[in-house]
Please model this.
Amino acid sequence: MRPIKHPYLPIYYLSVVLGLLLLAGCSDKKTVPIYNTPEYKQIERKLNAVADTTDLKHWLQVYRQSGNRMGESIVLRRLGRAYRVDNQFGRAILAHKQGLAVADSICDTMEIVNTLNELGTNYRRLGAMYLATSSMTLGLGYCQQWSDTTAAAFKSQLKILNGLGKIYYTIRNYKAALDYFRRSLAGEIKLGSAFGMALNYSDIGRVFRAQNNLDSAQFYFQKSMEQKQLINDEVGMALIRIEYGGLYEDRGDYAKATAEYDKAYITLMAHSDRYLRLRSCISLARVYIKRQMTATAIEYLQEAKMTADEINSPGDRSQIALLYYQIYRKSGNTAKALAAYVDYKNWNDTVMNLEKLGDIQNVQIDELMADNTRKLNYVRKDMDRMRKQQESGWLVFTLIMVGMIVLLAFSYYLLRIRTRTLAAYREFRDARVRFFANISHELRTPVTIIQSAGNSIESQTDNQQIRDEVSQLQEASRRLLHLVDSVVDITNISIRPVDEAQWCHDDIVGYVRMLVEAYRHEAAKRQIRLVVTSKRNKIEADFVPDYVDKILGNLLTDMLHHAYNQSDLYISMSIERRMLRLELKDRGQGMSPEVVKDLLKPYDSKNTSEIYMHVGLNIQAVQAAIRAMGGDIKLKSKLGEYAQFIITIPLRHGDHDYPRLTEQKTLHTPAALSPADADMPPVVEAEADNKPRILIVEESAQVARYVADQLKDHYKVFFASNGEDGLHKIRIAAPDLIITDGVLPVMDGYQLCEGVRAQAATCHIPIVMVSSDSSVRGRMKGFQAGADAYLLKPFRADELLMRVSLLLQQRRMLRDKYAGSVPVVDDADGQVETTDRTPDFIDEVQQYVDSRIGEGDIDLADLAARFGVTRATFTRKVKQHTGLTSAAYITSRRIRKACELLQTADMTVAQVAEACGYSDTAYFIMVFRKSMNKTPKQYKDEWLKP
Model:
């Protein structure tokens, strides 16, 4: 018997039904369409001459105060467009979202479609293609179900089609892009819109140019230019000239390409959209590089770089860095070429690989289209519902109220009965728990005494016969303990409420792989190969770690016992109808049909099958754990051939938001930590996030990935696959803590521990050893080798985190305690140096750095040698006094000096950069802006401003 999960559910469901009925009954008004074409056109004409954001804000206030929601939505759409032209994308998106909400509130479909198109354009310009596609496809859905057939409505649909074409062009799906552009072009030709035809002609030309079909591209660019000339669109003609220049450049005619780019540049200089002007700057720089006119190319690159920084465009920054790299490489300046190439790689890494992005986003778009179809169906039903008039009478309301009162009274009566039943059940459950706990304690006490006596006899005699008999005694006692644990597990799981278990939401594939690792040692003794497979690398699911431990532990133990030597045992995972499917299959003794039929039934003493008696309690514990998680287990077997267990568990357990494995608060008592060395650890320059660094030495990539997933939110993790590689990385990187497996190739974990402890530079590093060897001898061997903690596979993630945290905290406390008095051993030459905690040290460093700022780069090794310490010790001292790394401290002094010169001296930015040790003015500007949030020129202008 299991208690009611929520006794108030009948009342809750009744309240929901009542609320829905009342809502339907009270809706006695018809939805009146607000869209009015004459009024809409009048507002549009009034705002056509308004382009400034200040004026648009004024009109927004006017329409809001007058309660004109249509005018408010139109102004918000135009205000968002003005923000986008000014490269204020955050404000543009906010304005368009507000306009969309207003248009939706008045059911103005025309404005909804137009605003969705503008919002999609914002996201496309920012590179958020998934969000752009979501907005565009939703707008297209509105157009397709819209009953309005006016030219304005048709024009809105054509804009959406063109926007979707641009998205597919960006992700290089040229076939789909051409389809959308041609559909949009056909509509524009039908409407006779020169601007729309010009736009689509140029977009089709870009697609053909991307496909290296230059003749077709030129044809469509020429068609676009003809239309733009008809409407005298100067900006549009300038953009087509950039495309002309690209065609000439592709054909190697750099002179004509330069002429076209230059004409476009002159026209776009007068335009406020810096995004468009940037296109001409980059094109001119590129063609001048190809013409060997480096000085001119650098002028355009500097302008392009400042513009790209201002509008925060990673893709353009990547192109600019690549052009700088080409210039410096041709000039033989390898240092600057390398720096520019690093910048190019860094910026390029921020822009997703378009080849992969196209594949990914094509899949996402397909899923999105299906999702939007569902949304549109909902919108259609909602609009139909709003068009219909609902009438409700007092009779229906009275019947509902009477029924509600009757059900409330009945629910209250049931609640009292169930409360009493629940109290009685809990008392019975607690009594059973106490009974089995007492039984377990009474049985464990004599078994513990038997095992202790056996260990003592085994260690004191050399008689092999006695040792064999003691070994049999030990094995029998272990089996007895296992039976006791199985009975207690069955009882606890069966009577414990499901919600009282420690549920978590995490990657169950990694967790199962980690559990299986603990049985590889036992399987290897019989040459049984454990094969773990999964159709997905990662499956997020709700599960109880303790229950999964019991399920796999009992099944693997029994299957290894009955499997043939030199065979395979397969563990596979997959998802089937929102259920996790876990299969375990061996090649071994198998079971007869009679045993298979009875094995999964409740335990019955009448069933005396030998195999059933051997595994029956284990199977009952497994069944109890599976059913507690809402799952099921099936068994297939053929005598003498195989046994196969099929387990299905729901991926989600209710609507609860369960913690990750690393967030569970279960208390585990950590093993005793060995005393730490008193020596200070060698100083390693910290990363920018200052997270402690942990080295994981593990042969299995799956287990290493699982351990890293538990630690990555709190620590910086790196890896080694064998002991020799791990020891090498420890010596060069000096991690804060090491996690190693006991069994490793090349050099095992015990030899690794000994190697770490043998070196003065690494002997202080805490070591956590993870092993499947649960024997006392194995644990003693680990501690003797130098491990600070010893974890058995499988281990709990929260226990690992606690042990790691305690070890790092212990080392930190020792470091803080002895930082001012304990001598530090220089691992380079063995000399002893005393830690200096007085402020005089940093004052001397400051004076020396300030005196050499104008000389260029300051070598940190020479600087440390000047103060008689190693570079590592010097970095630690600087960070101790200033909180900055040595390199960051020198940069801060350079920027401080630059600020002083900009305030007092009549010097150009280039002269200030040189005076502060920067040979590259552009790099100086970038560092200064990163530190001060403004360029040197802006800083100087603000300082001199009266």
